[in-house]
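Subject: for your reference before the review

Hello V.,

The reviewers asked for a structural picture of the protein, and I figured it would be easier to keep everything in one thread rather than splitting it across files. Below is the amino acid sequence we used in the manuscript, unchanged from the supplementary table.
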Amino acid sequence: MRRSLTLAVLLGLWAATPAPVSAQDTTRAVLRLLYDNPKTRPGLVVLPAPGLDSVRAIVERDLDFSDRFELIPIPATMAPRGPGGINFGPYRAMNAVLAVEVVRGPLGVTARLYDVETGAVRNEGGFAVDLAGTGEGRLGIHRMADEVVQWATGKPGIAASRILYVSDNRVWRVDSDGYRPTPLTPAGRTAYSPTWSPDGRRFAFTEYQEGKWMVVLQTLASGTRLVFPTTATTVNITPAFSPDGRRMAFSRVVDRTYAIHQANVADLCCVQRLTAGRFAENLSPTYSPDGRRIAFVTNRAGAPQIYGMSSDGTDQELLVPYEYGVSGASFAPDWAPDGSGIAFHREAGGSFQVMIYDLASDRVRQLSSEGRNEDPSWGPDSRHVVFVSNRTGRGQLHIIDLETARVRQLRTPGTALLPAWSRRLGGTQ
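And here is what came back from the structure prediction:
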């Protein structure tokens, strides 16, 4: 259970501690407890950055979207520095606990994280980034923001990641902050079910041609396409990479029913059937983070539900609890990167809603309630989930923070479908 303690109480606890500690150590310890309580997020200011306005704006937005801080706006008239350096007094008066500064440095930009109470630098680093804050160079700024999150909380951010989705029968890509939706597959073809490779350098999707659904592997940097062998002669849908990128699971029509198959991606060979039976549909596989288990959807017991099995097809059993007469059919499972749970959507109250199954407690939690919500995909921090909702009138991408329940929309030019969130990206993808 998360603690719900006020800052005054926390300071009182530390004041009663017999062992002497420095003011900076006390502040850090208090911060650590604050991070355990999402309702008392530490206040943070991003200092003015003359000449780096675009970089500062992106960093500030990334830190806000991390949902780990209470971003405090700074008046435009406030000077970044005085004759004696940064004056932290006004920021303390604003209830800021942390301050972030970006300045020009030897590599391009230097970022610093300050303890507002003491004025001390908690951490700093140099980053080679595109100072204009446009195009592919934005990924470097996102990585810098993620590093600041790591310095402040000990947990990495989500800014340096991207989301694939389908719109107008094409696969698109968008930054995690909603910047520049970009089509990746050509117009005039029908593409569905995109999924990222673990290294973020390729993605797989299914493409329709002449009555067949084939699995296509496409390289992000070059756009090179490769049709996975044996998939061009039948129907193959909902591909998913294993965590090490060497295998791929997908659903293939066999004997007029969908069955889960697995193939060797490294050698482009060796397709193996994992589920049997002629009277059940098996769809939407997703691997556990260690690659040893696969969750999938099947209607073998009636309404579609989420089952689990070993990655070799053995040990198949109902995985997500089903409440007869209360919950409806379940679809689109996605296993959290940290293994803690599975996101999916389920019929509830006459519409689809996003759910989270927590493996530790063996309980299902409903995340959404407004409108129709479906096709969830985990962020790289296992704290945020992207999904499609029609709550604003048409299908659009929305991101929810599981700790604070904050929801933000990523606006796309057309109706969005089937999002897939990447892991953190280390280079240009």
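For the response letter, the relevant points are probably these. The CA atoms of residues 400 and 406 lie 6 Å apart. The domain at 41-81+88-153 is CATH 3.40.50.800 (Rossmann fold).

Happy to draft the paragraph if you're swamped.

O.
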